[in-house]
Design a protein that fits this description.
The chain has about 220 residues and is mainly beta. The protein folds into two domains: about 1-30 and about 100-210, M1 Pyruvate Kinase, Domain 3 (Beta Barrel), CATH 2.40.33.20; about 30-100, no CATH class. It is about 15% helix and about 35% strand. It is built from three helices and 17 strands. The chain is globular, with a radius of gyration of 17 Å.
Length: about 220
Amino acid sequence: MKVGQIWRYPVKSMAGEQMDHARIGSLGVEGDRVVHVEDAHGYVITARTHHRLLGHHAALNASGEPLVDGLLWRDPKVRTDIEDIVGPGASLVRDDSSDRFDVLPLLVATDGAIAAFGRDGRRLRPNLVIDGVEGLAERSWPGQCLHIGDVIIGIQDLRGRCIMTTFDPDSLKQDRQVLTDIVRKFDGTLALNCFVIRGGDIRVGDTVELAQHRECVAVRA
């Protein structure tokens, strides 16, 4: 097995950036989901309720600052675009804490499961895609670890999927059958909720080994 894809989503619920290499820290891919959208009342807003957020692309610049469609995330035009989607008073907020993740810091998918899914793997919004995996083998991985060079990633459980999977990553057109199929074929779960045991640098093409590790039991709720 090997690392097939690496993804980072600097702004939660926006399209992310595909990378050749990344630094993995205790909170996953460095720079992942460090900014989110809030409405005028301070509630976190995601594409579950405002799917047009998926139409904006986020990346990090050379200084590590998030960009939205090429503009710094604090740019007034970016705020205008966010208010157009969410409503007056909406804003982007920086959050580097562990609370910024819905579940765990890393979401790992496999090429075998994506093939079984039969649709664009970007709908699953993974951080890592592992290539060379047969069929739905990932479903037996919880409780084990992925070793990628010096990096050790613990696998907790399968990710329950939501309505965000029903939106095409490019056109944003909704197809509710996507989630219906995930429920029918995969019991509503696809890809793996993971946590970092030991961080480090990874690259596309790095060898991946599945192994047992004393710390691979669930360490986070």
